[in-house]
Design a protein that fits this description.
Elements lengths: L1 H22 L7 H25 L4 H29 L1
Helix pairs in contact: 1-2, 1-3, 2-3
C-alpha cells in the first residue's frame, strides 16, 4: 500500500510542476501539452514507487521526496523532449 502512496505523491508532484510551469506563461491552457506532462508523471510515478518499494523506505519524508522527485521527472522530461525536438528541426 505504501507504494501506491509514493506513486500518488510522485504523480502529484509532476502535476503541480506542470501547472506551475503553465502559470508562468501567458498562454491559454493547452490540454495537449498538459497530457504530455500527465504521461511523464505516470511513468515517473511508477519508477519512483518501484524504487521506494525496493528500498523499503516510505513515510512522511519519503512521500515528500517522492513528490519532489515527481516534479523533477516532469521538468527534466520536458527539457529532454525539447532538446530532442530542437535537434530534429
Amino acid at each position: 500500500m505504501n507504494a501506491l502512496y509514493v506513486a500518488a505523491s510522485a504523480f502529484l508532484g509532476a502535476i503541480v510542476a506542470s501547472l506551475l510551469g503553465w502559470t508562468e506563461t501567458t498562454e491559454p491552457f493547452d490540454l495537449r501539452k498538459f497530457a504530455s506532462s500527465l504521461i511523464r508523471g505516470i511513468i515517473g510515478a511508477i519508477g519512483i514507487a518501484v524504487a521506494f518499494d525496493y528500498a523499503g523506505s516510505a513515510g512522511p519524508l519519503g512521500y515528500l521526496i517522492a513528490f519532489l522527485a515527481g516534479a523533477g521527472v516532469d521538468a527534466g522530461g520536458k527539457r529532454v523532449a525539447a532538446a530532442i525536438a530542437a535537434r530534429l528541426k
